[in-house]
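Q: UDP-glucuronate 4-epimerase, please. Structure only.
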Amino acid sequence: MSTYLITGAAGFIGFHLSKRLIEQGHTVIGLDNINDYYDITLKYARIAQLGIKKDEAEKYNQLVKSTKYHTFSFIRLNLEDYNNLIDIFNQYNFDCVINLAAQAGVRYSIDHPFSYVQSNLVGFLSILEACRHFKIPHLIYASSSSVYGMNSKYPFSEDDPVDHPVSLYAATKRANELMAHTYSHLYGFRTTGLRFFTVYGPWGRPDMAYFKFARSIMEEKPIEVYNNGDMYRDFTYIDDIIDGIVCVSNKNKENNELFKIYNIGNNNPEKLSKLITVLEESLGKKAQKIYLPMQPGDVYRTAADITALSRDCNWQPHTSLKTGIKSFAKWFLSFYNYVNL
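A: Structure for UDP-glucuronate 4-epimerase:
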């Protein structure tokens, strides 16, 4: 069994990944600063599922042992707090570091640029430096399909040029890839970037469109539909994403390629209007729609070429949009105590 450091452990993907790994018998140290970009109640609820009490998780720079899983511990910390981060690396011999912590959101980056520089650039540099000094065998980190910007070639391939991002968020994610390449080249440790494509599912992020739509539909408020619903996203269910991350973690123990980037998506873009229809069916209520033009920083279509990840890790997504949204809706209605009228 291995020992993992997972940053962003109270986040959507980090929570699901932590749960999967500890259920497989691995030791996981989860790190998160629990910022207020979205409702922190949801973040505390996620880590409560992992046996971490809210009053314990609120304490800064104090390692807390799970009351549910003996191989899981949690610490609230900013990645930029390099000295305290180093203390954690001193305490454990990590076999793999998975960096999912970041300031997320395309539109939010337009109004809050400095938070992206601190979290996504300075914070990531802290992780790189710690991995370098402690000779971590493998660093896996979150990138994003946003790096493809206005690329008009579909599906997006890892070999496509990604030099023209259209949001600061995307620019920071591309910078992470370049920083990782530099560290792999200079210091000889393995880094793998994962370009996530519109991840959704239970315990998801409230700032994502499907989540906001669900809340508005249940509260009988209108939803804002950009570009008249004529936008396509490669919606990827959370369980498929976790399968992919675990595959990457296991596969790269067997090869010597120091730097790698993979798309991790559903390889089946769906129209925004279809998402809304499926969501209406799953929630049992119709949406009131307000149609608006395309927003700054948005792209018309995302579509993942997953040939490389499928080839190298024998990974394929399996969850249809209908199945995934139905699973999300069931959790959503239960978690927020909504009653179908």
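A: Brief note, in case it's useful. The chain has one domain: 3-197+236-267+302-317.
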